[in-house]
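=== RUN LOG ===
request id: a7f3
mode: sequence -> structure
chains: 1
length: 223
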Amino acid sequence: MNINDLNTAAIGFEIEATTRCNAGCPGCPRYDYNELDKLNSFVKLEDITINEFKHIFHSPEYMNNKSFHFCGLLGDCLSNKDIFDIFSYITLTSGNVNLQLSTNGSVRNTDWWHSLGELSTFHSEKHRRDLTAIFAVDGHRETNHIYRRRTNFDKILENMYAYKVGGGTGKWMYIVFDHNEHEVEIAREEARKLGFKFEIKISHRNIAMEAEKMTKSSMSSSS
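=== RESULT ===
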């Protein structure tokens, strides 16, 4: 990629920072639908390093007034060991930037999340635009692990609260299935306590889940 070839005046960036992920969601293209613990052959485990990111975005002019969304198709961006340095580089080097990251929330420890909350606060003060962590959590304690396989809800909640205490701006994104719709209001109330926005989503991944007898619900409103 050569950033000089892009018309950066009116562009935002969606960044795939890694192909690594700790979860095993049935609808994820990482996995063979017939063998849910088997990676597809096209998945090569790799990350964008901080040096590579700096090489691509080598000048503030390519970041100023832009939006960055770290939302992986094949990985969770927080599985990239350099991700905090990448976020910090964007915050410290650029101006007027909106920064979002999407994660299942179950990686890293509470100290790390507290530091990210502090960075979120600093980012908002410096840029007058937000650094927002979007938590993809599809249920509460009873059900989140059904789709977000291999994640631990209690750990996620601890991380969410550590991020909140650090001052972080957050959103709870909830995909509704038949198996988790009874926990929507519990999760909505938890999000309220956290000071996070709460959004319900119907995704193509609901279709993928039909094979696993976890069909989507008709509930599609958001708040």
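=== NOTES ===
The longest strand covers residues 169-175.
Strands lie at 13-15, 31-32, 35-39, 67-70, 98-103, 131-136, 169-175, 197-201.
=== END ===
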